[in-house]
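User: Please predict the structure of the protein below. I'd like the answer in structure-token form so I can feed it into my own downstream comparison script.

Assistant: Understood. Taking the following sequence of 53 residues as input:
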Amino acid sequence: MIAEYSSLKPSGNRVEWFGDSLKNLPKKCPLINTLVFFHCPCDGITTYKNIRW
């Protein structure tokens, strides 16, 4: 299981990222059988701004 699976908006194409990851995950990690998507539009800090990890 992967919990809180998501992607940041800056510096990338989220639609492409999700599509690629969902297509490739079963091949690369066949034991993962559950994903919990996380999206909170009210969280502008992590959703729409670059973050310095």
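That's the full token string. The chain has one domain: 2-47.
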